[in-house]
Amino acid sequence: MLSRLRKSACWLMLALMVVALPAQAAEIYLNGVRIASLKNAELQHCSVKFDVNGDVHILSPGYRIEIAADGSQKIAGQSDFDSARASSAKPKMRYVLVYEPNPKVNFGFDVWINSKNFRKIGLDSAKFTVEMTQDMIVGKNALRIIAKAGDALPGGTEVDITSLRIYRGEAAAAGTFKAKAPAVWELIRTAVDRAPLDRPYELYVE
User: Fold this and answer.
1) How far apart, in whole angstroms, are the C-alpha atoms of residue 65 and residue 73?
2) 0.70 exceeded by the pTM?
3) Beta-bridge partner residues of 47
4) CA–CA separation, 113 vs 135, rounded Å?
5) What is the pLDDT, as a whole number, of residue 152?
């Protein structure tokens, strides 16, 4: 009975959100993956969140989205809500932070994940990709970015950007990592941005 009530409440909440939001404004994500063509699906034990852009994030651990033979999306897996809530639960997917510098964009960054100073990126740091799965938990993670600009460099315009992006993916052959586009989170700074930034984000991990 309780399971049916949870399931009904979840779908009622989602239906109300879809009706209430302008069609062009909101996108819907399941465990960090955008829902583009999902039909005829049912989820059990889920939580729903609006982000600052009005997009809808459904967290329902154990489920994943796959591409069907006709190109549409379908649900695979099954609800794993209880184990995902346990402190020992580990992410099933892997997550990496990718830093793309630009010599005309003079910014330094501090990256915090779940109250831990994960990475300090100096003004002269080179491009890198680093795994962050080991510092994440299944479900909601607290991401904090502090960005400070150095001296403005000559010749830079708004088309010159540096980026921080987080990608999810799975281990491939020979221990390599295969990222899935698009990024689940990103921060862009341009050569004309000078204001400092100290901003929290929520990142949902499966």
Assistant:
1) 6
2) no
3) 59
4) 7
5) 83
